[in-house]
Amino acid sequence: MNIALIIAAALLTAFVAYMVYSVRKMKNMAAVPESEKILTLTDKNFQAQTKKGLVMVDFWAEWCMPCKVMGPVLNELAEDENFKATVAKLNVDHFQSISQQQGVRGIPTLILFKNGKEVDRFVGVKPKDFLIKQVSKYQS
Question: Which end is more exposed in the chain, N or C (fewer Cβ atoms within 10 Å of the end residue's Cβ)?
Answer without folding.
Answer: N
